[in-house]
Design goal:
single chain; mainly beta
Length: 504
């Protein structure tokens, strides 16, 4: 019995030393640890075990908990290669690094970065922290997690990252140094990254919970392989993307829970990676609330399949030419949830497998010959005018959806468990009405102005340029509005996993 109690005590101690637990209530900010304070001239520490100090550079050489506070205009924290069991508690820290990353996690390290309860912390770099234009010490991110590192960002405090060099957070690839991953949990995180990505991970990126406010010059959340948002049975994170080129991008994107609001120039969510071959690209939404709007791209774009099995999804696109609210090279499957997708183009380039009834409205009153216009049908290419209030109602007048048009729309798709196959439904905007019939099974929609007859999708072309011009060799993925190509993504071959470690 004594051995059992001893084992239990050791396991409990190990859990408490691991930084932020999955349930933060189980693991408050550690009271112990080495207190370290930054000033403009030096770093002072209560003890020197596990650390070295050189001017305003702190190097962590051993496992432990380190409480970081103070303010420094040019300083940094480095965790050495292969060091594990490190918890950096940001306890009211304002830190800028002139030519490198304010926090650097070395290859193969395991680090928890925790914002202490009730504190506000700010990390910044300068334009010199970009190896394309800056110094030789540049790490291209405010928080840099090198290859093989496993890093968790967490805590009930607040952390703001100002990325003037390149990325807000950069996580490396899986190599002989270890299996790389980046996890964000229960943290109020604000990132402004006008040059490149707010968060960029080469191997695995998981946003479990917390409140994220992101703005980026390129992607808000990017992963070369699998991007997981939330988990089944949880509230998930609250993610607000105020501005970006593309919102969420990964070869496989899984949204299981949370509240996500995206405003993008190009695709709001993109399942793609032009550097991979033979990959099963996937965009899966099984829960949560997703509200997305694109000024000139697709709403959701998958270079493989797109599956919506739950949640509340609203997606709008303004582009009246070649971009649609839902676009997939494979099959779009809608089997659950509430989905409203509307756009400026006259249709969606998709092959839809609707196991849950859906209804499709177009400006002409018909989508692929399936909808019959009713009296007072909205004529021409316009179905809804930006700002107009509208409803979708059953034949007996029960309103199933009400909203306001985010952009002018010539096409509207709606699916809900409240629809009945074969029944008529009316889209009303002011005095104008359009009537359509709900359907299930294989649904093929019109192609709008595309005119190529390729109902099954774009054949791997992905995120077309907003001006409709031809892509460079290698495809459209992450093409910037000015036509430039974003930085090359490093290669890596970590396992492709979904939530809970299952195969994506």
């Amino acid at each position: 019995m004594k051995k059992i109690h001893l084992i239990f005590a050791l396991l409990l101690a190990l859990a408490l030393s691991a930084g932020c637990a999955a349930d933060p209530a189980e693991n408050p900010t550690p009271a112990g640890g080495t207190e370290i304070r930054f000033t403009d001239g030096k770093v002072t520490a209560a003890a020197t075990d596990g650390i070295t100090i050189d001017g305003t550079t702190l190097t962590v050489t051993g496992a432990g908990t380190y409480l970081l506070s103070g303010s420094c205009a040019d300083g940094r924290v480095k965790v050495e290669k292969g060091v594990r069991g490190v918890t950096l508690v940001l306890n009211g820290l304002t830190l800028t690094c002139e030519n490198s990353a304010p926090i650097l996690c070395g290859k193969g390290s395991e680090v928890t970065i925790e914002a202490a309860a009730g504190t506000e912390n700010t990390l910044s770099d300068t334009a010199a922290n970009n190896d394309e234009t800056g110094s030789a010490d540049a790490e291209n991110a405010v928080i840099k997690c090198k290859d093989g590192s496993r890093v968790v960002l967490c805590g009930s405090g607040a952390l703001t990252l100002r990325a003037n060099g390149k990325n807000g957070i950069k996580s490396g690839s899986t190599t002989q140094d270890g299996e790389a991953s980046l996890t964000i949990r229960d943290l109020t995180l604000t990132i402004d990254a006008p040059v490149n990505d707010a968060v960029n991970a080469e191997a695995a990126l998981t946003v479990e919970s917390g409140t994220l406010t992101l703005s980026a010059g390129d992607d808000a959340l990017h992963c070369d392989y699998t991007l997981n948002i939330g988990a089944a049975g949880t509230d998930g994170p609250r993610i607000t993307v105020t501005s970006c080129f593309e919102g969420l991008e990964g070869a496989a994107v899984n949204i299981c829970s949370g509240s996500i609001d995206i405003h993008s120039a190009d695709d709001c969510i993109n399942a793609a990676n032009a550097d991979l071959t033979g990959f099963s690209y996937q965009l899966n939404i099984s829960g949560g609330t997703v509200t997305a709007r694109s000024d000139s791209g697709d709403g959701f774009d998958s270079n493989g399949d797109l599956t919506i099995s739950g949640g509340n999804v609203t997606v709008w696109t303004a582009n009246a030419a070649d971009n649609e609210p839902l676009d997939a090279d494979g099959t779009i499957t809608v089997s659950g949830g509430t989905v409203l997708a509307a756009g400026g183009s006259g249709g969606m380039g998709m092959s839809l497998a609707a196991t849950q009834p859906c209804v499709i409205f177009t400006g002409s009153g018909a989508a692929g010959g399936m909808n019959m216009p009713g009296p007072g049908t909205l004529g021409g290419a316009s179905l809804l005018t930006q700002g107009a209030a509208f409803t979708v109602a059953s034949a007996d007048g029960i309103v199933l959806y009400s909203g306001e048009a985010v952009y002018n729309a010539s096409f509207l798709f709606f699916s809900s468990g409240d629809l009945s196959d074969g029944e008529s439904y009316t889209l009303s905007a002011g005095e104008a009405q359009t009537v359509s019939t709900a359907q299930t099974g294989t649904v093929r929609t019109g192609m709008g102005s595309r005119g190529d007859g390729n109902i099954g999708g774009m054949g791997g072309m992905g995120g077309q340029r907003p001006d409709g011009s031809a892509p460079p060799s290698g495809g459209f993925n992450s093409q910037k509005p000015d036509g430039t190509t974003p930085p090359e993504k490093p290669t890596g071959t970590p396992p492709q996993t979904g939530p809970g470690g299952t195969t994506a």
